[in-house]
Amino acid sequence: MAAAGKSVPRHIAIIMDGNGRWAKGRGLPRIKGHEEGARAARECVEGCAELKVDFLTLYAFSAENWQRPKAEVFALMKLLEKFLKEKTPELIEKNVRLQAIGRLTDLPDSCQEQLHRSIEATAGNTGVTLVLALSYGGRLEIIDGIKSLLHAIEVGHIDKGMIDVEMFSKHLYTRYYPDPDLLIRTSGEMRLSNFLLWQTSYTEMYVTPKLWPDFTRKDLAAAVEEYGRRQRRYGKSE
Ligand code: FPP
Q1: Helical (H) or strand (E) element with 101
Q2: CA distance 24 to 15
Q3: Strands of 129-136's sheet in order across
Q4: What residue ranges line ligand 1, CB within 6 angstroms?
Q5: Per-residue pLDDT tens over the stretch 59-106
Q6: What tens digit of pLDDT does each residue of 124-155 get?
Q7: What is the pLDDT confidence band of residue 180, given thresholds at 50, 70 and 90?
Q8: Which of 24, 118, 187, 191 can pair with 18 through a Cys bridge, CB separation 3.0 to 4.6 Å?
Q9: Confidence of residue 1 (pLDDT cuts 50, 70, 90)
Q10: Which residue from 17, 36, 90 has its CB within 8 A of the most atoms of ligand 1, so it is best to mutate?
Q11: Where are the alpha helices (DSSP H) in 14-137?
Q12: Element of type H or E holding 229
């Protein structure tokens, strides 16, 4: 669990943007950018372990990303599967617990199988929880949450008068995790891009011009330091 220091975010969420531009700038195919992006993701998990962050959520594949060229989608799925297969022993060694959110049944079968194997293999770990957002969309998550609530009402588990913010949160993919304290976005874009729309209501945002493959653990530490200087008021006065 996180150290006593107030300034360490308990949950960091990251929009890993700029893989394509990183590759283009070097005259390389886009997939090379994604490969370097996977390497940066690995470094970031290690960085979170060092900083004693409890939860790290990475936006690895959005629901909208299916609209990219078929070859890029295929390559990203293969990369994800390979990453999980190769890195699971390391996740175990580093005490990282892997989880995933999103419409996971949209993923290719072999990818889903590897994902579930890795999740199971790391289920008992007690260090950083790494949450991969896959085929994830914030609006879709809210729709799925509403459907789940309606079902709970239909079967008599709850009454509609009982619905409040806390209860709705319990019907989202993220019900097991605290809301992110810090949201990092690389490559300078000032957008949420349909990521954790409900959960980021009071999240501190940190945008860096660095492209994701260039984002190092030093950059992560700088973001955490900046977070430590912020004053969070949750809509209240000082
Ligand atoms: C955005 O860059 C990144 C993605 C769409 C995918 C993120 C995937 C990875 C970092 C690699 C796989 C991750 C794991 C955890 C195995 P972009 O392609 O939109 O970049 P651009 O905006 O410069 O084109």
Answers
A1: strand 97-101
A2: 19
A3: 97-101, 129-136, 55-62, 11-15, 182-185, 204-207
A4: 16-21, 34, 37-38, 41, 58, 60-61, 65, 79-80, 83, 132, 212
A5: 999 999 999 999 999 999 999 999 999 999 999 999 999 999 999 999
A6: 999 999 999 999 999 999 999 999 999 999 99
A7: very high
A8: 187
A9: very low
A10: 17
A11: 19-24, 30-51, 70-93, 109-122
A12: helix 217-229
Atom of ligand 1 lying closest to residue 61 CA: 6
pLDDT of residue 5 exceeding 50: no
pLDDT digits (tens, 9 = 90+) for 94-121: 999 999 999 999 999 999 999 999 999 9
**Is the CB of residue 7 less than 8 Å from the CB of residue 227?**
yes
Residue in this structure with the two tokens 């996977």, named with its chain if needed: 38
Give the domains, in start order, of the chain with CATH numbers.
Answer: 11-128+173-229 (3.40.1180.10), 137-172 (no CATH)
Half-sphere exposure of 146 (CA within 13 A, CB side): 6
The length of the chain is: 238
Which amino acid is it at 222?
A
For residue 33, which atom of ligand 1 is closest to its CA? 18
Which residue, judged by its Cα, is nearest atom 14 of ligand 1?
38
